[in-house]
């Protein structure tokens, strides 16, 4: 972590030298150097240097100076880190922009999966999902060897939006990347957070990438590199990696697949109904950051009721242990029969705690509902922690304005924007 000043990586940046670097840090930095070379410079462990320039530009409200970006790009062309194989030491020059969060996250996921399997030899299968990066192995809940992974659509990135496609994978790693979930807003224009180390500018030709690979370090590195490279160059790189496949969505809407990607794709689960005519639509931006810190993940439910309090549609339910799902008492009393349709969603990482949900104007049975007043609910419960619920009533139609669910102990709040479809 370069966010923790006490971490090994931060000490390397601040002092310029480590007398004895851990095997993990050496491994991660060695892999970064390998992917930097393989990608022709499109992937780097020092992207933080450019990111700092763009963050400052966002705060200033003006695009970065081109000469400053050119200087930073020139610095990135010079290797900054050297490993001393003799004594295990490590030196760094000009590594102030060290950022290991891309490949590093995949590396952590791989180590977590290995640790779980070693600690519990009788475990028949499992799935780990960190921010849209997925590692699966062994049997699923149903006893099969295939896990169903939804791939987020970069053109409809809401957390509950229809998937672009569905994958069935066994022992595999799936990683997503793209600028649709994070970035910089300058003078009203959104720029991707993925920066091309060869130019210093955000990429805009690729909307989203999904990679299947034998391990998550490879999947993460490939997903980011393919977001920077042209589709042809990216797929050529994928072809050199045994067991890797990729899907690339470009700005013009074209979908590019590596030759073997389609063999993992399956039809949508049968319980996902075809859409009916709908007359209203809404987005619900939620922030589940609690006021009181809790080390556990939150259990979250968001749903819509009509003016009489009748359940219309569950927008999202996150959590898989019935004991804590029942703590979502208001949602449980209305709609506890809703279950998960997929095991995980592969997507680009978004800002922590912040999610976007969409309502397509259909009820739980797939029928369109009329314009009118609807109540939007948010309920969040933390294991052995805060439990809060909130709601807001808003008119879907007639030029309604966004409505707010105020913050509470378990969440920071939500904003609902409901409209009438033309």
Describe the protein in words.
This protein is α+β, with helices and mostly antiparallel strands and 422 residues long. It has helices spanning 8-15, 23-38, 48-60, 66-76, 101-119, 216-228, 231-238, 322-325, 329-335, and strands at residues 17-18, 81-83, 90-92, 125-130, 133-138, 147-151, 165-169, 172-177, 183-186, 189-192, 206-213, 245-250, 255-257, 265-266, 280-287, 298-305, 311-318, 344-346, 354-359, 372-382, 387-396, 403-405, 413-420. It starts with 7 loop residues before the first helix and ends with a strand.
Please summarize what this structure is.
The model has no long low-confidence stretch (mean pLDDT 88).
How would you describe this structure in keywords?
422 residues, alpha+beta, six-stranded antiparallel beta sheet, four-stranded mixed beta sheet, 9 helices, 23 strands, 23% helix, 30% strand
């Amino acid at each position: 972590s370069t966010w923790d000043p006490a971490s090994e990586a931060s000490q390397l940046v601040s002092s310029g030298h480590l007398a004895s670097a851990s095997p993990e840090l050496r491994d991660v930095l060695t892999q970064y150097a390998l992917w930097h070379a393989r990608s022709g410079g499109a992937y780097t462990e020092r992207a933080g240097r450019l990111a700092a320039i763009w963050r400052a530009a966002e705060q200033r409200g003006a695009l970065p100076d081109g000469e400053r970006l050119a200087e930073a790009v020139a610095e990135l062309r010079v290797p900054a880190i050297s490993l001393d194989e003799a004594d295990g030491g490590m030196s760094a020059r000009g590594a102030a922009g060290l950022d290991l969060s891309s490949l590093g996250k995949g590396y952590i996921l791989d180590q977590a999966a290995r640790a779980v399997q070693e600690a519990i030899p009788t475990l028949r299968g499992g799935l780990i999902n960190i921010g849209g990066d997925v590692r699966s192995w062994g049997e699923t809940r149903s006893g099969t060897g295939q896990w169903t992974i939804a791939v987020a659509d970069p053109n409809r990135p809401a957390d509950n939006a229809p998937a672009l496609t569905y994958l069935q994978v066994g022992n595999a790693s799936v990683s997503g990347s793209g600028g649709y979930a994070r970035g910089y807003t300058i003078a009203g224009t959104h720029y991707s957070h993925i920066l091309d180390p060869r130019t210093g500018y955000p990429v805009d030709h690729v909307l989203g990438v999904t990679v299947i690979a034998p391990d998550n370090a490879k999947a993460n590195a490939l997903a980011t590199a393919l977001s920077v490279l042209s589709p042809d160059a990216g797929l050529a790189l994928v072809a050199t990696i045994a067991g890797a496949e990729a899907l690339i969505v470009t700005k013009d809407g074209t979908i590019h697949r590596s030759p073997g990607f389609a063999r993992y794709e399956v039809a949508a689960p049968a319980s996902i109904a075809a859409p009916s005519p709908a007359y209203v639509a809404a987005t619900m931006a939620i922030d589940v950051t609690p006021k009181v810190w809790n080390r556990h993940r939150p259990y979250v439910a968001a749903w819509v009721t009509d003016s009489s309090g009748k359940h219309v549609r569950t927008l999202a339910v996150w959590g898989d242990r019935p004991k804590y799902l029942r703590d979502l008492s208001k949602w449980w009393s209305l709609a506890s029969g809703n279950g998960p349709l997929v095991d995980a969603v592969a997507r680009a990482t978004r800002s922590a705690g912040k999610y976007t949900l969409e309502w397509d104007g259909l009820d739980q049975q797939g029928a369109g509902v009329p314009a009118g007043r609807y109540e939007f609910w948010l309920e969040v419960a933390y294991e052995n922690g805060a439990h809060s619920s909130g709601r807001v009533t808003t008119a879907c139609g007639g030029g309604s304005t966004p409505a707010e669910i105020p913050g509470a102990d378990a969440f920071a709040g939500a904003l609902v924007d409901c409209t009438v479809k033309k």
